[in-house]
Predict the structure.
Amino acid sequence: MIALSLDEIAVVVGGKVSGDGSVQVTAPAVLDGREAEPGGLFVAFAGERADGHDFAGQAGRAGAVAVLGSRATDLPTVVVEDAQAALQTLAAQVAAQLRTGSTVVGLTGSQGKTSTKDLLTAVLANVGPTVATIGSLNNELGIPLTILRADAATRFLVIEMGARRMGDIAHLAGLVPPDVSVVLNVGQAHLGEFGSRAAIATAKGELVQGLAPGGTAVLNADDPRVVAMRALTDGPVVTFGRAEHADVRVLDLTLDRLGRPSFTLRTADAAAPVVLPLIGAHQAFNAAAAAAAALAIGVPLEMTAVALATASVSKWRMELSDLPGGITLLNDSFNANPDSTRAALDALAVIDARRRIAVLGEMLELGEESESEHRVIGEYAATRADLVVAVGEGARATADGAGDRGRALPDNDTTIDWLRRTLAPGDVVLVKASRDARLDEVAAALSAQVG
């Protein structure tokens, strides 16, 4: 973080200082006191179940030197009426100070945001100091926290942006207008909130409309709703995908026995072979999006290809691991929607195995289409897996759709017990669901105790 005194922070956010206003904040802001760093800022919220102000002491012991909150604490505190609004205001001010020395990239899409962000971060980190969204902290709190991790040395700021309602991305992009805006796709994630894909496209398009003057839009040439966003900007556009007219094309895509993609990235001026250490054909297109964004920044394609070959992605996203007893786990439990679940099932289908078992939990936020979408996913899963296990009442239709290959289990504990009794050497098991289904618990139990 750019060093600021507590008095300076108070001026920026319109707050009052309780305690020593000369204290210098030199490290990032955090919401969890246990994660505070020496010189850091602890942001306290008074919630229904817990009051963050009560944990100021914990944050201080971890190294925090000050608090931003709605009441005074034992640490020097900037007191404001609305801590969230103040956090965003502070982030916007820091971002404005960074503009002359850094390039900001914003990414959005219905699926693939985090993996693409991770791939692009791996590329840009080879060029200069890079700060990027941690995991999927892509909301009204996560984005300010990401911005506040940047400092004067930061050359690239890579920010993942999510949306649950119209205007979310416009607001977030307003905090730090991107020099490059990447839109990956328009799918069914959050269909329940938005009501239609057309509405989702409008929401994602806010990132293109939010570009900084002269900024570049990076768009998926294979998604008509995304390509149409070209009309939302007068600036340059770079496209990616399989389409012949794409500026960065994916060609000659193949998968090895573990589902890892090899392909060629081609532009009008260059071509580069890529072998990704990731699982699933869809990762090739995430890599193409990252390459297109890097190209817009000025990173040569050949340099991008080298960096992609050693890239990794955030946890619980297509993580392949060998378990005791000759069993293979494909852990994609961080989140799910119909499109990303199909991609995960496609990856499962190409992995060499005695049996392929898909453990699928509920896909949330699908609105009135939830039951039918789960049933359709079950039908699709039955073409990709030998056994389809639906976990929880919300996913029961998945088992129904899978027919004879489907099995409905009521909860995670029952699923863990069933898998321990059922899995055998040579099996590969995919675990995937929306985050709130907590199927990461199933994956963790298998990792710890199978064998």
Remarks:
- The two ends are 46 Å apart (CA to CA).
- The mean pLDDT is 95.
- The first strand starts at residue 4 and ends at 5.
- The CA atoms of residues 102 and 155 lie 4 Å apart.
